[in-house]
Amino acid sequence: MRARPEPLLTFSEQVRAEHLELKRYLRQHLYRHYRVLRMTTKARRVVKGLFDAMIEDVDLMPTEHQESAQRMEAESGRPGRARAVADYIAA
Questions:
Q1: CA dihedral 44, 50, 53, 55 (to 10 degrees)
Q2: How many CA atoms lie within 13 A of 33 on its CB side?
Q3: Pick from 5, 26, 76, 82: CA 20 to 30 A from residue 20's CA?
């Protein structure tokens, strides 16, 4: 079925037009809204600040994550430490 040149199921023309209209509306009024963009920028700065602080001083993380960062750094160098810090922040 994956080798078919066209999809098995598609929207009707009316539903397709409504779907595209909804996507345009959401992009303009939700995803690209200035308040959403502003909060995204603030969140990016906070996460970057956390990462920068913890990559320089793993003692800022809980003990088990400090140990993980040290182990991963011993195995892979600085990229290992960065991975451990990123994993901690993401959790």
A1: -90
A2: 8
A3: 5
Q: Spell out a b/e string for 31-70, using b for 16 or more CB atoms within 10 Å of the CB, else e.
A: eeeeeeeeeeeeeeeeeeeeeeebbeebeebeeebbebbe
What is the pLDDT at residue 3? Answer: 80
**What are 62's two structure tokens?**
């809980």
Which ranges of 1-91 does DSSP label H, i.e. alpha helix? Answer: 13-26, 34-56, 63-76, 78-90
Residue 77 identity: G
**Side chain identity at residue 54, one-letter code:** M
Name the one residue in this structure whose structure tokens are 């993980």. 68
What percent of the chain shows pLDDT beyond 90?
90
